[in-house]
Amino acid sequence: MVSRAEEIRTLVRRLEDAINTRQLDLLDELLAADFVRRSEATPQLPVADREQFRDVLRQDAAAFPDNTQTFTRVLVDGDWAAVWATYEGTQTGQLGPFPPSGKRATFDFAGVLRVADGRIAEWWVTWDNLTVLTQLGHLPAG
What would you report as the CA-atom Rg of the chain, rounded to the nearest whole angstrom? Predict the structure, then answer.
């Protein structure tokens, strides 16, 4: 018998795979209809449902077509999962006000996800924008 923790871990890994393989239609199975993503790193990109999340992922793929997100740790506690992950990608498209740099960024990010009724209902995610923009050459190195 599969434990609740293992079910949630599998759900989170399926999200990782759907994002990395660009199979955004799978988000209907993985995310609640009223899924919410919160990120202080991107306050200009509100996400209050699955379609808005798809839009964010499409914008990200336009800026970083080769991006991958590797969830290096997935920890589960009750209906919550925490992820520590690495994002890698080459900026060949526009990133907000920043033109394509052709440079590769690699940075860690963290997230906390809440699961309800077998689907991810909320995702809080954070990363250091200064690290990213410096790697891409949009800010001077410290």
Answer: 15
Q: How far apart are CA 103 and CA 91, in angstroms?
A: 6
Q: Three-class SS of residue 139?
A: coil
Task: Flag whether 21 is in a domain.
Answer: yes
Average per-residue pLDDT in the chain?
Answer: 96
- pLDDT, one tens digit per residue, over 126-137 is 999 999 999 999
The whole-model pTM stands at: 0.94
Count: domains in the chain: 1
User: Does residue 141 lie within any of the structural domains?
Assistant: no
Domain that holds residue 131: 4-135
**CA atoms 113, 14, 29, 78: torsion sign:** negative
CA torsion sign, 103 to 109 to 113 to 118?
positive
- Alpha carbon distance 38, 62 (integer Å): 21
- Angle among Cα 68, 27, 3 to the nearest 5 degrees reads 90
Give the CATH number, domain containing residue 124.
Answer: 3.10.450.50
